[in-house]
Design a protein that fits this description.
Two copies of one chain form a homodimer. Chain A is mainly alpha-helical and about 210 residues long. In chain A, about 65% of the residues lie in helices and about 0% in strands. The first copy, chain A, has nine helices and no strands. In chain A, helix 1 packs across helix 2, helix 4 runs antiparallel to helix 5 and helix 4 runs parallel beside helix 7. At the A-B interface, helix 6, helix 7 and helix 8 of A face helix 6, helix 7 and helix 8 of B. Chain A binds a DNA duplex (30 and 30 nucleotides) through helix 1, helix 2 and helix 3.
Chain lengths: ~210, ~210
DNA sequence: GCACAAACGGAACATCACTCCGTTTCATAT
DNA sequence: ATATGAAACGGAGTGATGTTCCGTTTGTGC
């Protein structure tokens, strides 16, 4: 790519150590499968028959299994794609909102991600080895995304400086876990509470009292 | 029906509105199934084939389905039985340990329960209607159990008085949720931390700093 | 003992994850 | 343009698992 070629026409991405460019149809089908899986998982849960995913993507099950040898591979692919999207949203928000607001908006976005991933989270903690790498992926992508926003907010004086990005991610994820009550707004309220405590004006030596 | 009948020998539990006593073999098989399910779920997860449960219980699958028409019914039965056992442990601990210690011991017991129920928790939050009643069952049985211990501890001056039993249950359950790190001792450490803050002598206005 | 309702067990059926392989399509050299 | 081989495709087939059905066995009350 971009490198001239004449004779390097077949060189593709060899130099970079990447795999050869996949065939166009293969790439198209792979994208269609992930897209279809995301859509179907959202409406019918991750336990939906793979045939439905294949059908929605307009491919045969053989093709599906070629790209995703295990059902879990498909789930992982969708999860990673959504993590990527969530992380990417941070960069965009950083250019659209003032620093302090960007953090809050992104956390709402992140909360939505967590909420819709409840079904995946179930699979995730099922002990299946296939998902062992996801937590690292989660952290590797989302922590820098949030840190970037936090840094900007802190530099702008809009937010306390003693906040660890990863702690905040975990805290929000845990807070949004619906305990034995089923209020869908609970997570949001808890997070707002947390945010109130993070704003610069508040007493940094003491977490906000809970509102019980 | 159920009306008199010579002697009351067969009256059994009619008076209380309960169903007739089931046949002895039916009761035995039902117990065996729950016992087998508990055992098999612990070693192989809740997605284990029902045949295995039936086999371990020494009954046919037909019998299993007679007692538990849905797979979820079996899961629910195991869950409720364990909630009962956990709640019952409170009464026993209350007689065996001094009040303050009883609370701590019971919370450890409760934490074990939560930890082993991770697989169930996954199913629980899967949106399946079959589990809708479990949270209420959870609260109805465990909150009084803990409250009893807390009351005793507070009366003995061993613990702060401003603790809501249900909040504590939920907090411990959430704390023990393994975030994207997989340290099995994490939950216990977090709970210990929480307990330190609950003891009477500590500074009630500020939770203990986390030990990261 | 006897009768019969209740419970049992496992073969049979339905569904789904996953495999296999003959057919089709793409990318490249000529 | 066309030929050619590697790669990808699709869907019938296979095995495993959930669920039902029904002939057989067993417990209970007389």
């Amino acid at each position: 790519m971009t490198t001239d070629m004449g004779d390097m026409a077949k060189d593709k991405a060899d130099r970079t150590g990447e795999e050869k460019r996949p065939r166009a149809d293969a790439q198209r089908n792979l994208d269609a499968l992930v897209q279809a899986a995301k859509s179907v998982f959202e409406t019918s849960g991750v336990d939906v028959p793979v045939r439905e995913v294949a059908e929605k993507a307009g491919v045969g099950v053989g093709t599906l299994y070629r790209h995703f040898p295990q059902r879990s591979d498909l789930i992982v692919a969708v999860y990673r794609k959504e993590v990527d999207a969530c992380a990417a949203a941070a960069a965009e928000l950083a250019t659209q909102s003032p620093p302090g607001e960007a953090v809050e908006r992104w956390l709402e976005r992140y909360l939505d991600f967590i909420a819709t991933k409840r079904g995946l989270a179930a699979a995730l903690h099922s002990g299946d080895k296939a998902y062992a790498g996801l937590p690292d992926y989660f952290r590797a992508h989302l922590e820098p995304a949030l840190r970037q926003l936090l840094d900007a907010a802190q530099a702008a004086g809009a937010m306390r400086a003693d906040i660890d990005a990863y702690d905040l991610l975990v805290a929000v994820a845990n807070l949004s876990a619906p305990g034995p009550h089923s209020d869908p707004q609970h997570g949001r309220r808890m997070m707002r509470l947390l945010l109130d405590g993070l704003r610069y004006g508040s007493d940094v030596s003491r977490p906000p009292p809970d509102d019980r």
